[in-house]
Design a protein that fits this description.
This protein has 503 residues and is mainly alpha-helical. It contains 20 helices and 5 strands. The termini are far apart.
């Protein structure tokens, strides 16, 4: 039986699982297969095209609101606001929210996944063939440089360099004689488009480098927390002053690029070359956008490179401070507590179900975290009274009427204490019933309740009960049986009043 020829390779199960996981987890793939992928890419591609890497959040919200209204007028179903869509895109991993270093408002920028999706869609819609002479020239020159620079043998490297020198001598002689080819307009335009296409990938490269640096920072911090004691490899290297972020693959690669960008000689050469290209006749065939991109190419790379450099530097400093200030010890303690709680929860789960009622009252603590862009400034002018202030005439206060109003809601304890003192002065001793017989309850039941309060506070219990009576507001007589109390004639609540009445 003849086995089918598979070309020496079969589909790897690991590759299939890896691609399936990417389809489910990678934000770029999720963006491309989302229902509103066309709208998301169109809106983000418009406002984050070319040199624009980030925008203040309020400015982006306003721009998106205007775009969304225009799309709704064209019949597209996009009912939400720009701010609401941006919040969804941040959660989905399409946008990255950052605090601005030079402003109080936060900024939004596309993530590496969004740049990857934009680049993919741009490759589908580009009018230029991917198999071009300029791309082949770039490929061959890079291969030549790689073969030459990686050759450890001096003989072959010398032969290659001499061949290049001979080719340069031949070209010099041709130029001196005036017999040299000039790149025609179409081929020059094609090569210009290839250069700009390569430059268009730089924002995605910067986003990828920044994501790699931030992921490395998180990985190093997690590694430090897992290394017990002060002898862990990662912890020891940071203590010795090793810049783990700068010495990583992403850090070294970016450092080489950044050194080239900030080198004055190389920067001036790039400026001279760009200016020379734009002065050529074929430059008139370039679009206005292409010419503008050539002019801003170096500035965009310098700005974006500077931002990534600041990010790398700040992450390195933060990591060193995290170690040298020994903050990692507190994080380790917290991590141990969390792991201990998880282990105990696993043990409890074997005996109790999640829905079982526990005889514990847990106090839930926490705080709500909102985006800065969701906050709204308070305008003090909103609290101003718009109507003019009306001045009312000054009137006279009727104390008797005021006292009547107060007595409708409050027990007149002062009156009751005076009635008790008067009864004590005339009788020598007094109970609640004695007081009510000498001084009828002017507040009805409230007077009876007030006398009970005074008896409890300024008297003492005696055996027996007594009947007390009062008249209700409707004129009916009410009778109640209460425990017998004797008011204390020596209590300071009454002595001053007895003396005052006697005088």
């Amino acid at each position: 039986m003849v086995e089918p020829d598979t070309g020496g390779s079969v589909v790897s199960t690991a590759d299939l699982h890896r691609l399936a996981r990417l389809r489910q987890e990678h934000p770029a793939w999720a963006l491309l297969r989302s229902d509103n992928a066309a709208a998301v890419l169109a809106l983000l591609g418009r406002h984050f095209d070319r040199g624009t890497r980030r925008l203040p959040a309020p400015e982006l919200f306003a721009r998106l609101d205007a775009d969304l209204q225009e799309l709704r007028d064209e019949g597209f179903e996009l009912p939400r606001t720009g701010q609401a869509y941006c919040a969804d895109w941040v959660r989905a991993g399409y946008l990255l929210r950052r605090a601005s270093a030079d402003a109080r408002e936060e900024t939004l920028e596309p993530t590496e996944a969004t740049f990857a999706a934009l680049t993919f869609v741009a490759g589908l819609t580009t009018a230029t063939s991917s198999v071009t002479e300029s791309r082949l020239t770039t490929l061959s020159s890079q291969l030549q440089a790689l073969a030459r620079d990686s050759d450890p043998r001096s003989e072959s490297r010398l032969a290659a360099l001499r061949a290049e020198r001979d080719e340069l001598d031949r070209q010099i002689a041709a130029v001196e004689s005036g017999d040299f080819p000039v790149l025609d307009g179409n081929r020059a335009v094609e090569r210009s488009a290839e250069i700009l296409a390569l430059a268009g990938e730089i924002p995605g490269d910067f986003a990828r480098v920044r994501a790699e640096l931030e992921a490395l920072n998180r990985e190093l911090r997690a590694r430090i927390l897992d290394d017990e004691g002060d002898r862990g490899d990662t912890l020891g290297e940071v203590f010795r002053g090793v810049d783990l972020i700068g010495s990583s693959d992403a850090g070294r690669s970016f450092a080489g690029f950044y050194d080239m960008i900030i080198d004055p000689e190389r920067s001036s050469q790039l400026d001279d070359w760009i200016e020379a290209v734009l002065q050529r006749p074929f430059a008139q065939q370039l679009t206005t956008e292409q010419r503008n991109r050539f002019r801003t190419l170096l500035t965009e790379m310098e700005d974006a490179g500077g931002e990534v450099h600041v990010t790398m530097t700040s992450l390195s400093r933060s990591l060193r401070h995290f170690v040298q200030s020994r903050h990692y010890e507190e994080h380790r303690r917290l991590q141990r507590l969390l792991r201990s709680a998880q282990q105990q929860a696993l043990q409890v789960a074997q005996r109790r179900k999640p829905y079982d009622l526990l005889d514990l009252e847990l106090v839930r603590v926490g705080m709500g975290i909102d985006s800065v862009a969701a906050l709204r400034l308070h305008n003090p002018a909103d609290d101003l009274v718009a109507e003019p202030v009306v001045t009312q005439p000054v009137g006279e206060v009727d104390l008797a009427e005021l006292r009547r109003i107060v007595r409708e809601s409050e027990i007149d304890m002062d009156e009751l204490a005076g009635n008790v003192a008067a009864t004590l002065r005339s009788r020598g001793s007094a109970t609640i019933g004695d007081v009510l017989r000498d001084h009828p309850a002017t507040q009805g039941l409230a007077s009876a309740v007030g006398l009970l309060v005074l008896a409890a506070e300024h008297g003492h219990r005696v055996d027996g009960t007594e009947e007390i009576a009062w008249t209700s507001p409707s004129g009916a007589t009410r009778v109640a049986t209460v425990r017998r109390h004797l008011f204390d004639p020596t209590d300071t609540e009454f002595t001053a009043r007895i003396t005052e009445d006697a005088s």
